[in-house]
Prior knowledge:
By secondary structure, the chain is mainly beta. About 5% of the residues lie in helices and about 55% in strands. Strand 6 and strand 7 form a beta hairpin.
Amino acid sequence: MYKKILLLLGLTIYLFSKTVTVNITADKFFTNKAKNITEFTGNVKMTKEKDILICNKLTILTKQHTDTNETIVKEYIGIGDVSFSFTNDISTIKGKGDKVLYYPLEFKYIVIGNGYLEDTKDGKILIGDKIYLDEKTGNAQIEGNKKKPVKFTFQIQAKDTNETN
Length: 165
């Protein structure tokens, strides 16, 4: 038990590129260091500074940095009633879906099933069955279906009709 706690603490310290405290609570914990996989199941809640992720199952895929041998997170996979809020220097992204994949090294999100993403700074809201968002490039792709079409909401400045050119 003591070794598992130490391993968990060591893993959470290296989950992000800079050293910050990450707290994860769940009903169950599993790790396979040889396969670079860690899983949390049941009532999962992960917090890191202002960031929060809640889901039924969280899988974290890691890799070893070739020069420093530090553990680096490649991918987070949240499954089952996923909701999150991630804050960076530019904005806060809030979202939810049946399954969420986040690639922190690439700043990419994929939300699958009942997807919802909101950029709180710009007021942009994306709704669809599958949402792909690349924060580095600003590219987004949304897929809907016949029952649930794609929805995109954004704000623009309205031109005052009393204004002269």
